[in-house]
Amino acid sequence: MIELDRVTKRYDGRSVVDDLSLTIRSGELCVLLGSSGCGKSTTLRMINRLVTADAGTIRVDGKDIIAFAPEVLRRRIGYAIQSTGLFPHWTVADNIATVPRLLDWPGPRIAARVKELLELFRLDPAAYRGKYPHQLSGGEQQRVGVARALAADPELLLMDEPFAAVDPITRDALQSELLRIHRATGKTIVFVTHDIEEALRLATLIAVMDQGHIVQSATPLDLLEHPASDFVRDFVGRQGLGLKLLSVRRVAERVRRGESAPGESLPQEASLRDALSAMTAQRTDRLPVADPAGRPIGIITLADLVR
Amino acid sequence: MSGRAWFATPLLWVGLLFAALLLRMDLLRPVFRWAFPETTPLIYDRASFLELFVAHLTLVAVAGFGAAAVGVALAIFVTRPAGGQFRTMVGTLAAVGQTFPPVAVLAVAVPAIGFGARPTVIALFVYGLLPIIENAVAGLEGVPHDVREAADGVGLSSRQRLFAVELPLAAPVILAGIRVSVTIAIGTATIGSTVGALTLGTPIFDGLVANKLPFVIEGAVLVALFAILTDMLFARLDHWLRRRRGL
Q1: Which top CATH class is B53-244?
Q2: Contact: B147, A99; criterion CB under 8 Å
């Protein structure tokens, strides 16, 4: 759990983050959403003390972060950034091993952890362990950057626009992987982005920021259905609101159990938007739905999407 | 690198030529006799070339290590938050050191500390600082911002960041500065002979004074080969540094 309590940061007398309070529960994937200069990155960087707050307190698991030496605090908090910041003179394995080495893990445990993380990110350990960052594609670098952030198994992971610099297809794959890893590990993640689609897709909690304030913090669905102000309404985008609503609801919520239909089945964790897309492509108004093991559990119809 | 490629490098051949001339300059006696039939002796004989080389090497090594240690330390200092305000001052001082001709430094140093090797080392040290400081500052400042931020973000202390990240990444640029400094120092050290230091410049100045051109040629060729060989060794070191980083 992270509590930001009336936190303020000023640069040259101007408040970049102004009297901001936010509570993020354990296991939450909280997205700080806003346009550039709204203070979202500064807020994130105050949590691991890369930026020191001028006023207010920040508590991680109930403890004021001021009580820790910055290095000690940061080794317990994963940190991944847009440009990856991989150490160019170290191999992939050495980069991932950075924090475990700082924590003096024994060698075999580090090697096992590196292998485990490479497998988690679907990078073949034998092929990737000895490569240098400049030998990787942008998406692979980003995976290694996140793997490094997760290496010492931190309870909390901070991500500053980690997928902003990769192409759309890679970004989509990385987002899926982050969701998979979030579900698998239950880590608390704070994620900064300016991309509303990315926020809707990833977040369990979205905090919309403007001029150093949080203007609304809500689940993606709440944010779309009940925007707190015109600013939020504009930011979320009036156009395509229906499609965005479809994108934050899961097929599992609308499934008609026990019925069956022909066609290619949808996974139950797919969004309603995916369902609409699949129906349009397959020229049908109903599709079967399957559970994660691939067993059919029912159907969903076009009418169910707008119910 | 394959065995053949290693054999084909000029480093080996320049090294062998240098060693041969250093130990057996007298083998060239027939050549000198043909070119300078009037002159005797033909081969410099007041000290062995090996002895001169060792003295020359010692001067350059002492001044070079000193300049490298002080230069890199100053560069580290002025690129830390605490030392940032001294950056311009250090740069200016180093530039002044470079502007002073080494001969002038010798002229000032000799009355203060006497003749011999010591004023020469001081002159070489002062003259060699600038390229080292400039390159080390450029190298340290050239470490990408995101790499530095990531180093802080994952929990490296500032000392760990310096030694594990910044210095290794800046190493090729720092090395290039030391390479320039040392190579220049090898040539410049010859003037130490004018204040009584023993160097490979001694035959040159003796030859000029006594009008014996073969001495001048012998000293000059050895100094040139020494400088070329050193430069090649630095190139090898640079290659090794970069290869270790998978470049």
Answers
A1: mainly alpha
A2: no
